[in-house]
Design goal:
- The protein has helices at about 1-35, 45-65, 70-85, 115-140, 145-165, 170-190, 195-225, 230-235, 245-265, 270-280, 280-305, 310-335, 345-365, 375-400, 415-420, 420-435, 440-455, 460-485, 500-515, 520-525; strands at about 95-100, 110.
- It is mainly α.
- The protein has a two-stranded antiparallel ribbon with strand order 1-2.
- β1 and β2 form a beta hairpin.
């Protein structure tokens, strides 16, 4: 009996030790298991998610709708974009983040801060206005443009564009950039049987793929030097990188910027712009001119100001040179457009957008030369908001004139005031805003803030070059404006304004007039606690 008791006691002791050991292992493993669990902040990610879900809904709905009811897809798209924009309102009251590392290092892949909300407002607002422009265009061109595919591609691109400003690691940034870009290639060449559109889409695709490949090489160099892809962690580890990796890091920084410079149409990555704008449906060109630029500039701001502040001596001068080349090349190209050349109005807007991209690059470059980088970045965001409103308005008028004048020459706008006085006055206002002349006070105010950012950063030579380019741009903007009020040649053609175009013109004009009346509001809104 005593032997049996000893045996049972030994087994009980072994069982107790085993249980205690198992409990200890489970206790130690619990934090590791919990570290793998992600809690998703659905409110923070709501805007891009709503756009993506709407895209899927449009794609599925298109399978069951008869041909005569396809226009409903356009209104479903507009409703989804409007709902996504409304979801930005709860995000105005504080920063939110999700998809974060849960260990000792606090770094997140998605952050909905003030900068994110402002750029998402720009992206979703631009996509919404482009969708309104497209409603009439898709219906008029329904034999060559498949409605379901068009709206699905537009929403898919907008979802990627809305994701990008919230991305806080290089992998998510590149993925968002490609999600915004790949559907845009198809949108440019979506018209069946039109060689010009197919050629424009091919040029756009090949140029973008090359730029993306170069950027991915730069990302790999940065990752090799730091061992992380999160922007805040890259900023922390870059100054501690081995001195032998200095050249590798410098190369990685420059190459990473290439993909975003391509999206901004910065020289020498600008050659795709004129042909793409001419070959694409006009609402798609308007979308690329605003949303495409917002994607590029928000990506540039994130990688330079957040990820690479310790290498400001590399990207600061590089972006200053790019800004100088871009504004000069853009204005020179716009100056060369002949009024009687086919599609000269669209080409002028394309070259003008390149010149405007040069102005937008100036404050980002200035952020590399000053400690108050947030103020400089605020100037870029404020300028982008102004440019988006008035440029979309100019494209809306171009879309209206293009309904009766398919070649869309500058000469086709002669005497527009005699047939459509309100439309002519609005186009004149938009052009004066782009030129920076009264009554387009918001354009003048935006240019002054950009000029001030260059001067404050000690970039006097860039400020002087910008002033020269602004004077050059006055010539072609005023030449087009004057043509609107001249006597028409031949029989005047009246342009019937469809309801969606009327809404776009009204919204862009209201934004331009309101901001011209209180221009300080846009800078205050753009610069308040960007990061």
């Amino acid at each position: 009996m005593s032997a049996l008791a000893q045996s049972l006691g030994g087994h009980v002791a072994d069982l107790a030790l085993h249980t205690a050991a198992q409990a200890a292992v489970e206790h130690l493993a619990a934090p590791a298991a919990n570290a793998l669990i992600q809690s998703v902040d659905w409110l923070a990610i709501a805007p891009p998610v709503i756009v993506a879900v709407t895209a899927l809904a449009v794609l599925v709905t298109d399978l069951f709708l008869p041909e005569h009811r396809k226009p409903l897809l356009g209104w479903l798209t507009i409703g989804g974009l409007a709902a996504a924009a409304l979801m930005l309102l709860p995000l105005l009251h504080g920063d939110r983040a999700t998809f974060c590392l849960t260990g000792a290092t606090r770094a997140c892949s998605y952050t909905a801060d003030h900068f994110t909300v402002v750029i998402q407002l720009l992206v979703l607002g631009g996509a919404l206005l482009a969708a309104l422009l497209s409603v009439t265009g898709v219906q008029d061109d329904r034999r060559r443009v498949p409605a379901g595919e068009f709206w699905f591609l537009l929403l898919s691109s907008a979802a990627g564009a809305a994701l990008l400003p919230a991305s806080r690691d290089l992998a998510t940034l590149i993925v968002a950039l490609e999600v915004a870009s790949l559907p845009a290639f198809a949108l440019v060449g979506i018209r069946h049987g039109e060689a010009r559109s197919a050629e424009a889409a091919l040029k756009f695709f090949l140029s973008s793929v090359t730029a993306t490949a170069v950027s991915l090489m730069g990302v790999s160099f940065v990752y090799a030097a730091t061992g992380t892809l999160h922007l805040t962690e890259i900023a922390r580890r870059l100054p501690q990188a081995d001195g032998q990796l200095h050249t590798l890091v410098q190369t990685g920084v420059v190459l990473t910027l290439v993909g975003f410079a391509f999206k901004t149409a910065a020289v020498p990555f600008h050659f795709w712009v004129p042909e793409t704008y001419v070959g694409a449906p006009l609402p798609v060109a308007a979308y690329l001119s605003v949303v495409g630029k917002a994607v590029g500039f928000s990506g540039l701001i994130l990688v330079t100001v957040i990820a690479f502040p310790s290498y400001a001596d590399v990207w600061g001068p590089a972006l200053a040179v790019l800004a100088a080349l871009t504004m000069t090349a853009g204005n020179a190209g716009a100056l060369r457009q002949r009024a009687t050349r086919a599609y000269s109005a669209v080409r002028l807007l394309a070259w003008s957008s390149i010149g405007q991209a040069g102005y937008l690059l100036v404050p980002i470059a200035a952020a590399g030369y000053t400690r108050d980088g947030q103020k400089a970045i605020g100037s870029t965001v404020a300028y982008a908001l102004m440019y988006a409103a008035v440029n979309l308005g100019a494209f809306a008028v171009a879309a209206l004139v293009g309904r009766t004048k398919p070649l869309n020459r500058i000469a086709d706008y002669r005497g527009l005031y005699a047939t459509n006085p309100v439309t002519a006055v609005l186009l004149a206002f938009f052009l004066l805003c782009l030129a920076g002349l009264p009554p387009g006070v918001i354009g003048l105010f935006a240019k002054v803030t950009v000029f001030s950012a260059a001067v404050d950063a000690g970039l006097g030579w860039l400020a002087v070059l910008m002033a020269v380019n602004v004077v050059i741009a006055l010539y072609y903007y005023l030449r087009w404006t004057a043509l609107l009020f001249r006597a028409p040649e031949g029989e005047p053609v009246r342009h019937r304004v469809p309801a969606p175009l009327t809404v776009v013109l009204a919204l862009t004009a209201a934004a331009g007039v309101a901001l011209s009346g209180a221009p300080q509001l846009v800078l205050r809104f753009a610069a308040t606690t960007l990061f």
